[in-house]
Amino acid sequence: MNLDELRDLVHTPDASSEEAPLLRLDQDDDLPGLVRWFGEDRTRQVVTLVVEGDQIGYLRRQDVYDLVQPGAMGVGDSGRTMLPGTSTGWTVILLDCPEGGCPDSPVYAVRFDAAHPPRCTRHDLPLAPR
Ligand SMILES: [Zn+2]
Question: How many angstroms separate the alpha carbon of residue 28 from the centre of ligand 1?
């Protein structure tokens, strides 16, 4: 599982995802953070994914559960196995755009480097942890 494969799984934004929180995923290594995000709060049902600066669509909680279900696999399929458990090293943080009322803010992220903060996809301003 990688970010490109994730693009094939997301649903096109629609009315059910209008109010969905945003989650940034910038690298394939960020994928466990998606499971972590749903795991942190059982009331979270839908998330809109921001990958490499684009809102690529949304996933429902059940979609993510389906991804991590162990399934019948054939020879060679283990190479595609996703997410062997959830590391406690994953911390999901909330980032804010400095522009007040920004519709793309706040956005959840699973990594943050203060020296190279991610930028708002709408305003190109550095995002800051809440
Ligand atoms: Zn913004």
Answer: 24
* Number of domains, the chain: 1
pLDDT digits (tens, 9 = 90+) for 39-48: 899 999 999 9
61, 34 contact by CB (below 8 A): no
83: Cβ–Cβ under 8 A, 6 or more apart, which residues?
1, 31, 32, 35, 67, 68
Interval 65-106: pLDDT, tens: 887 766 555 555 554 445 555 445 667 899 999 999 999 999
pTM over 0.90: no
| Domain interval for residue 98 | 3-69+76-129
Ligand 1 centre and the CA of 60: distance in Å?
A: 25
- What is the CA(73)–ligand 1 centre distance, in A? 43
